[in-house]
TrEMBL record:
Domain Radical SAM core intervals: 1-194
NCBIfam families, per the entry: moaA
InterPro entries in the cross-refs: Aldolase_TIM, Elp3/MiaA/NifB-like_rSAM, MoaA, MoaA_twitch, MoCo_biosynth_MoaA/MoaC, rSAM, rSAM_sf
Pfam family, one: Mob_synth_C
Gene Ontology biological process: Mo-molybdopterin cofactor biosynthetic process
UniProt keyword list: GTP-binding, Iron, Iron-sulfur, Metal-binding, Molybdenum cofactor biosynthesis, Nucleotide-binding, S-adenosyl-L-methionine
Pathway in which the depicted protein is active: Cofactor biosynthesis; molybdopterin biosynthesis
Any GO MF annotation of the entry: metal ion binding
Protein name stated in the entry: Radical SAM core domain-containing protein
UniProt superkingdom: Eukaryota
Length: 297
């Protein structure tokens, strides 16, 4: 979230539940099996539990995931799990109260940790922690995060700090995954886990640990050639690359009465125009892009 915040989107500009469900059915009809609800923050949506339940009833959906900041999630997790939630990504960049307040501008560390505990107690199938590592801010906590995977079946994912509008990205703040991994290897044996097609993380196992660690290496080692992800923003724009500025308004197409077959043509054209790889260091930070909160994780 940019320090100055972002303008709130009027309700009328956001996708309605029927529009979301139409797009879900459309994409699933083309072979998509995993649906992730992000945001902003998906738990602020009043019908989030009902939405998960509806998605779970679509034939062909195998995974229903949520990415959340975890602040209010623990109050809805039991209902979400019962509705069919299979996977949870929690965003958490620090385990220190003061730093949490500095990074998020709110006092909610205990609430996020409660959401993590609740997810594990409920037996959510996949639980991941997303940790953006920033030099001079939380790089000294890497080993503390690794310890969370010792006795819990979670995947702690360290994410290279990426530039988005409003986050004041600087190269001097970025910690490469090689440096993070080297730090961990000084204390633990780290074994690579086989990479499945479409995986965005480089995953490793530490012998004796129930959980695993992973790395999202968008800045220093892109995985564009195997990326199978498509994003639809809350206001209905299709992004075929997290760092791409070419967006197609599926919302406007839906509201103009476009038939499913025609919608698929627009989607197909956008996917075919996906670039071989996104820009790298030296270019990416100079390209305009939405703030991450307006894209979704």
């Amino acid at each position: 979230m940019p320090e100055e915040g972002v303008p709130l989107s009027p309700d009328g500009s956001l996708l309605t539940t029927p529009e979301i469900m139409r797009l879900v059915r459309l994409f699933v009809s083309c072979g998509v099996t995993k649906i992730r609800l992000t945001g902003g923050e998906p738990t602020v949506r009043k019908d989030i539990v009902e939405l998960v339940q509806q998605i779970g009833k679509v034939p062909g959906v195998e995974e229903i995931c949520i990415t959340s900041n975890g602040i209010a999630l623990h109050r809805k997790l039991a209902a979400l799990h019962a509705a069919g939630l299979t996977s949870l990504n929690l965003s958490l960049d620090t385990l220190v109260d003061g730093k949490f307040l500095l990074i998020t501008r709110r006092n909610g560390l205990n609430a996020v940790l409660k959401s993590l505990r609740t997810a594990l107690e409920l037996g959510v199938r996949k639980v991941k922690l997303n940790v953006v590592v920033m030099k001079g801010i939380n790089e000294d906590e890497v080993l503390d995060f690794v310890e969370l995977a010792r006795n819990s079946e979670i995947e702690v994912r360290f994410i290279e700090y990426m530039p988005f509008d409003g986050n004041k990205w600087q190269l001097s703040k970025m910690v490469s995954y090689e440096d993070i991994l080297s730090n961990i290897r000084a204390y633990h044996e780290v074994l690579p886990v086989d990479h499945s097609h479409g995986d965005t993380a480089k995953v490793f196992q530490i012998p004796g640990f129930k959980g695993r660690i992973g790395f999202i290496t968008s800045m220093t080692s892109n995985f564009c050639s195997t990326c199978t992800r498509l994003r639809i923003t809350s206001d209905g724009n299709l992004k075929v690359c997290l760092f791409g500025n070419d967006e197609v308004s599926l919302r406007d197409l839906l509201r103009s009465g476009t038939e499913d077959a025609e919608l698929l043509k627009y989607i197909g054209t956008a996917v075919k125009n996906k670039k071989e790889k996104h820009a790298g260091l030296g270019e990416l930070e100079n390209m305009p892009n939405r703030p991450m909160i307006l894209i979704g994780g």
